[in-house]
Amino acid sequence: MDMDRYIGRLLDNRYEILEVIGTGGMAVVYKARCHRLNRLVAIKILKDEYSRDEEFRRRFHAEGEAVAMLSHPNIVQVYDVSSSDNADYIVMELIDGITLKQYMEKKGVLNWKETLHFSMQIAKALEHAHSRGIIHRDIKPHNVMVLKNGSVKVTDFGIARVMSKSNTLTKEALGSVHYISPEQAKGGWVDNRSDLYSLGVVMYEMMTGRPPYDGESPVAVAIQHINGGAPMPSTLNPNIPGGLEQIIMKAMALDPKDRYASATELLADMEEFRKNPAILFGKDRQIMDDATKIIETQQVLEAARQNRTTAEKVAAAGAAGAAGAGRTRNPAPGQHQRPADQSRPRTGEQPRSRGGDQPRPRAGGSPRNPSSNMTRSASGTDTERRAAASRQQPNRNRTREEIREEIREEERNRMATIAIIACSAVAIIAIVIFLVALFNGGILNQNANLVKLPNMVGRYYEEVRDYEGLAIEIMSYQYNDEVEKGRIIDQTPAYSEGAEVAEGTVIKVTVSQGPEPEVKVMENLVNQSYETAKKFLEDQGMHVLQGEEFSDDVEEGRVVRTDPAVGTELKDGQTVWVYVSKGPVIEKQKMLNVVGLKYSIAYNQLIGQGFESVDREYVEDDAEKDTVIKQSEDPNTMVDVTTRIVLTVSKGPKPTEAPTKPPTEPPTEAPTKPPEVTVRKTFQLPADRTEDYTLSLKQNGKEVLEPTTITAGTTQIEVELTGTGTQYYDLWINGEYYKTEKVEFTSDG
Predict the structure, then answer these.
(1) Rounded to an integer, what is the distance from CA 577 to the centroid of its chain?
(2) CB 33 within 8 A of CB 15
(3) Cα–Cα dist 723/679, whole Å
(4) 300, pLDDT greater than 50
(5) Three-state SS at 146
(6) What residues contact 334, with CB distance under 8 A and at least 6 apart?
(7) Strand partners, 617
(8) Which residues contact 515 (CB under 8 A, 6 or more apart)?
(9) How far apart (Å, rounded) are the C-alpha atoms in residues 744 and 747?
(10) Crossing angle for the helix pair 382-392 and 310-325, to the nearest 10 degrees
(11) Is the Cβ–Cβ distance between 140 and 102 less than 8 Å?
(12) Which residues pair with 681 in a beta bridge?
């Protein structure tokens, strides 16, 4: 593709291509100017070798459609998707910054604060995308832009797939191999956890200066991702906090089930770590085990001391003792060597006094530090007291194995305590449920209307789902070789002849799915409630996630579609997205005041605001030709963007006929134009802004005040204006319309 051949061209009579700013695997990115909205944009144009391939064109447009669904401060904004002049292109927000990869190459290893700062923003972008059913599939530092203010934007959804499309990798290995998840490397099922794995790899590289796996070929690197076994980040950077290391390694877990289930869950741990950088998460992650990591830096130990369990404290003491056993046994200056028949304290530990004895003076030395004679509080744990006592016992050398046994015993005691508490809680809950059932069902409903308990077994669920006087709920779906699909297998409470129940009682039923098929396929769940669809899929062994989308055809709260689609073959444990209707799309925007503007300017402003239909009607008027003199919707009101906006436009004044005879009276002097008046107008500004912003003041589309930077928190600005009569001024903030204010130019101000 000749990248320069587009420079200077005008696409769709709107976008002027200015220069090349980047290239990718599928497209070239240009800097361009939008003449309709007078702003700089980035345009990604599909390369020629791919524009001839219908599949690549489809994927390219799917990218734009996917990202256009997203609106988040940490995701690059897409403005337009189009095909024209033999070019397939996407118009995007122009980012002024560098890639995270370039930033890392400049700075080398990042500190944990920067790593957390960038990672939380990327995770928030993924959280938003995943909530819309979109997986990025190519998270890497090259696809993250760092802005001058320190914020980041995730970009290049070039291989993102809307989840209604195929969600497997079978034709080509997509994504960058150093950041690809194991399931992507194997061509397996990909879901949101694949993005979290890639984010974990990016965090690993930020903290260590290198990705976890490298090799001579892409295949070699992919195999390493599949096999796992990356070195702990702390072996490459001993300054990494333990809690952050745990977060990284959980995100990078080989099995998706061991990773964070969602970006929301990942963000929760990041926030906990941000609040307390010394935090260590659960032991189940097996990251801080002393067999794999021994922190010797005293400052780090002291920082983490308040968060260690008693067992960890004892283990640390044991490690210190083991280390001391290997040191020289020569006494330090001022110390006295004990006789061989007396127990010797471990190196690095002051001898302890017995009971309330005062410290004994050493031969040839000063007495021991009184502070070392302090004993543990009586409120300490049994293990702590046993550990303290064992250190005080004479003629006993504590071994590492003894310390480990104490740790194991404490763990057994703690687990027993947890079990007792759990059992007590269960018992209390059971008692509460029993009492509620007793009073609500037995006492309070003594006078309730009773209805006969029907026998639901063998009947079709669809026939009884709206049973009068009772609530019928599906408890589960089950495969059954003897009961026809859709019929009820069992019910709770069970039927007995003559039994009665209170009106409104919930009857839970088990519904047959018929004989178990050799191959499971996606059923049609459209218009079902989400709870029913979820239960149906879970009973088939599927993992269910919920999405939302607008629908003009399906009632709010009901299933619009599923991904995979109806008829698709399913595998055990497969993730299925169930999309629930949010009802019809009703998007509203604030109506601008365009009276007095040229029609072309008014049209561009309204289209830029999001209105879909803007028409005009011409009338003869004294106003200048092509000037808007009336609009169909009142300014500053919220209007549905699909509403047809009609602008009444002046055709200019009606031409007058030439006089047939000279006037009999001398012409009067033309009325004098009223003098211009200068007034000082105070405009009220938004008080809820937390960042500085740019303010512009326009009249009839023309700027009357140069763009001015306003400090966050400023509530008003005073401007000197000159004019006559009544004029209207529009305030724009950061290039977006804010409000219109009227100014009266009178001599009294």
Answers:
(1) 17
(2) yes
(3) 8
(4) no
(5) strand
(6) 362, 364, 365, 366
(7) 648
(8) 479, 480, 481
(9) 10
(10) 20
(11) no
(12) 719
- Going by the DSSP 8-state scheme, the letter that residue 339 receives in this structure is P
pLDDT at 36 (0 to 100): 82
In the set 12, 53, 96, 138, the catalytic residue is 138
Integer Cα distance of 631 and 617 in angstroms = 10
Query: Which residue, chain included where needed, has tokens 């990078």?
Result: 252
User: Is 700 strand, coil or helix?
Assistant: coil
Q: Cα–Cα distance between 260 and 12 in angstroms, integer?
A: 45
Cα–Cα distances in Å, from 660 out to 368, 561, 653, 670?
A: 127, 77, 21, 22
Q: Is the dihedral of CA 48, 52, 53, 54 positive or negative?
A: positive
Element (H, E) at 575: strand 575-581
Segment 246-254 shows an average pLDDT of 96
Structure-block tokens of residue 606:
């309204």
Strand ranges inside 100-177, DSSP E: 134-135, 144-147, 152-154, 161-162
**SS3 breakdown of the chain: % helix, strand, coil, rounded to 5?**
30, 25, 45
pLDDT digits (tens, 9 = 90+) for 386-404: 444 444 444 444 565 666 6
Q: Is 84 helix (H, G, I), strand (E, B) or coil?
A: strand
Q: Which helix (H) or strand (E) holds 120?
A: helix 112-131
Query: How far is Cα 579 from Cα 503, in angstroms, rounded to an integer?
Result: 34
pTM: 0.42
* Cα torsion 25, 27, 29, 30: sign: positive
Residue that has been written with the tokens 């560098």 in this structure: 98
pLDDT at 127: 93
Looking at residue 348, its pLDDT comes to 39
344: tokens are: 């010797």
Q: How many angstroms separate the CA atoms of 749 and 741, rounded? A: 15
As a whole number of Å, the end-to-end CA separation of the chain is 63
Residue identified by tokens 């063998």 is 458
Amino acid at the residue 261: A
Distance (Å, rounded) from C-alpha 626 to C-alpha 607?
Answer: 18
When comparing pLDDT for 263 and 516, which is higher?
263
The reply to whether 53 belongs to the active site is no
Q: Which of 253, 247, 282, 289 is nearest to 265 (CA)?
A: 247
Measured in residues, the chain has a length of 749
